[in-house]
Each structure stands twice: as C-alpha cells, then as structure tokens.
Amino acid sequence: MSPLSNLAVRDVETLVHPYINLASFRETGPLVIERAQGVYVYDSNGKAYIEGMAGLWCTALGYGNDELVETAAEQMRKLSFAHLFTGKSHDPAIELAEKLKEIAPVPISKVFFCNSGSEANDTQIKLVWYLNNARGKPQKKKIISRVKAYHGVTVAAASLTGLPGNHRDFDLPLPGFLHTSCPHHYRFAQDGESEEEFASRLADELEALIVKEGPETVVAFIAEPVMGAGGVIVPPKSYFQKIMAVCARHDLFVISDEVICGFGRLGTMFGCEKLGFRPQAISVAKALSSAYLPIAAVMIPELMYEALLVESKKLGAFGHGFTYGGHPVSAAVAVKAIELYQRDRIIEKAARRAPLFQARRSASIRWSAKRAASGSLAAWNWSPTRRASVRSMRSTASARPLSASPRTKA
C-alpha cells in the first residue's frame, strides 16, 4: 500500500468522517476532492470523476452554477447573517417560505426553517408531540417509521431511521419509536405474492401494529416516497393508498420525508406527487439549495399552526429554533435554485430523459426489461437464491424490476 500523502495524513489526524470504518480508514486515507464543475469532481491529483450520486442526492443543479454563486455573493454583501428569533425577519426567508407554500403539493400554512434533513425530521417529531398536547391527547405520542427507512442521525431522527448501523451502541432507538415492514417487494414478498397483495399485507401489518400499541398512543407515520439510504426502494403499486387509508382510520398524522425525493428526484417537484399520496406535513432539504449552502424546511398545515397558537397562548414563547435556521444567504440561494428548476424546466427534462437512462442502462448490462420503468437513478439487489433485479430511483409505484436473463452471467 502506498504511503499516505501529506494532505491525507493531515486529514486522518484531524477529522472524524461519517459512514466509514474509522480503523481501516487510518490506513487507506481519504479521497480528497479539490474542485468541481458541472457533473464532474476532481481529486487532488487532477483525476476527474462523474459525480453519479449528485453528492448525497443533493447537487441537483450541478457544480459551479454561476447564478447560485452570484446570488450567494450578493446576499453576503447585503446581509451576511440575520436570525428569525424573537420576531425578527428578513426578505430571503419570507420569499422562500412564500415560494414553498406556492409549489407545495398539499395545503401548507407555514414554513419552519432549519439546517438539515435530520433537524427537519427532529422538528417534525417535536411538533406532532406539541400538537397532541394542544389537542389534549398527551398519551398519543408514538411514531411509526419503517424498517430500512432513513430519516437522519440526530438522537430522535435516528430513532425514526430503520437501519441497524445507526442504532448499534448509540442506545437507539428511543422508546416510542416503532418500525413497520419495509415495502421492498423483491426482498420481502412471499412466494407468488403480487405487488398488490404485498401492499395489502403491509397495510394490514401496519394496522396490526397500531392496534397492538393502542391507536390512542400512536400519533404519526413518516415515510420517504422512495427509500434512499435503505436501498433505493420503490414501494409496490397501491402501497401508499393502502397505508394512507390505515393512517386515516386511526387518526395518524402523515409526514412525507422529501429530503431526497423533493425538487425533481422522481421527475416531479415532490416525491409524494409521483407516488400518489397526500401527507399532512413535509420535510425538505438537500436539493432545496442544490446543496450550495445548508438549509432545510418543515412545511406544516393549518391544523399544526393552530396548535402552535394554542400552546403559545398557554405557555408564551414557542421554545424551538436554530441559530442558522432561515439564514439569509442560504435562503436566497434556495429561492434562486427553485427559480432555476422552474425557469429551465429541470424537472420536466429529468422526467423526459429518465426512460433513455433506463434503456441505455439495461442495454449496457445486457439485462432485459419485463416492463419499462421510468427513472434515472437505480440500485442493484443481489441474492444467491434469486435473480438480480434493479429498481429505479424515479420509478412509478407500479414499475416492475428489471430482471437478469437466466442465461446472462451477472
């Protein structure tokens, strides 16, 4: 193994990196990215890479976009920082909140700003608890997520996350966080079980969990439209329709975690539009600013805002917020990013190009499609007992996996 460069040694001796084996990392060192432009990033040796994941599903407008850079610079010169505490405000936050309400797929009353998807989902947890205290239902506090879900890594958001690696030896999940079945038909369907039957079974399992815990104790259900970090899992057809019916029967507040799927990832502005369900609240981050600056938002309905008013009349100040929430520079860049998505019809272009991506991809790996799927990001699933399948990140809920021909070597 080649000795580490000076830059790599400095990294190893100063940084703690997320999602890496820290012990072996001391030997291998980092890949140091020095610059980026368009879809390419360049390491410290000048080698170019296509950034196929858009960072962490976030740099939706590519690297080095001059309009975003100039927007940030202009705002920094005008108002480099301002907070939203104690009734203070500024134009970029107001304009961004207005824009998010305008493009929301469901009625939204107000917007709360924070800095990351983890903070957004952490805030969703606090708000649904706050809501039920205002409603006089203090026992209705449990929240249901799903196995393999990813909703963040703060203590509460990581409790929503359904991945063992985010729980082990962190003493998580906390009590009151429940996980229902993962909607991965390829992995978890029973022999001969259709997608429709699988979706019905998962809805029944969710309902059984609610009944077991007591509907009077369960407040909310949270879901990514397409599960990201858990494996790029597209739910089976009719899944969300069946799940929403269960949630409605038991008075569960439904939260759509759009941190990955929002702003065009599925070929629609929001993932819930593609998957055909209507949540009460929405979390957004990542592509909100094309990741040029950290910013996230919690989009809440009038019901939630009315509860906040009730609690303020009782308690006084709304005791939640972040120093950098709604930062003027981040907000200005987010406003510009949304303008670019709309002006340049980025989302429509992505939707149109997705079938081409699928066709070329399936041809390049010599796999035959049982049924065409729309999408431009995908994951492979390998099993010694099943043929390989591929699922599209932007597939419709009814899309079937691409299956390897039995005569084709993987």
Q: Give the CA-CA distance, first to last residue.
A: 30 Å
Largest sheet entry:
7 strands, mixed
Low-pLDDT stretches are 367-376, 384-410
When the domains are counted, the total is 3
The percentage helix is 25-40%
- Portion of residues in beta strands equals 5-15%
**The CATH topology of the largest domain:** Aspartate Aminotransferase, domain 2
| Strand segment count | 13
| Helix-and-strand structural type | alpha/beta
Shape verdict: globular
CATH uppermost class of the largest domain: Alpha Beta
The neighbouring-strand order within the major sheet is 4-10-9-8-7-5-6
The mean pLDDT is: 90
State the CATH architecture of the largest domain. Answer: 3-Layer(aba) Sandwich
Determine the number of helices (DSSP H or I, runs of at least 4 residues). Answer: 14
| Multimeric state | single chain
Q: What is this entry, summarized?
A:
With 410 residues, the protein is an alpha/beta fold.
Using brief descriptors, characterize the structure shown.
14 helices, 3-stranded antiparallel β-sheet, Aspartate Aminotransferase, domain 2, 410 residues, 7-stranded mixed β-sheet, alpha/beta, Aspartate Aminotransferase, domain 1
Q: What's the structural blueprint in terms of helices and strands?
A:
Layout: H1 6-12, H2 22-28, E1 33-37, E2 40-43, E3 48-50, H3 54-57, H4 66-78, H5 91-103, E4 110-114, H6 117-134, E5 142-146, H7 155-160, E6 177-180, H8 185-188, H9 195-213, E7 218-223, H10 239-249, E8 253-257, H11 271-275, E9 281-284, E10 296-300, H12 302-315, H13 328-343, H14 346-364, E11 378-381, E12 389-392, E13 402-403
Parallel strand pairs: 5-6, 5-7, 7-8, 8-9
Antiparallel strand pairs: 1-2, 2-3, 4-10, 9-10, 11-12, 12-13
Helix pairs in contact: 4-13, 5-13, 6-12, 9-10
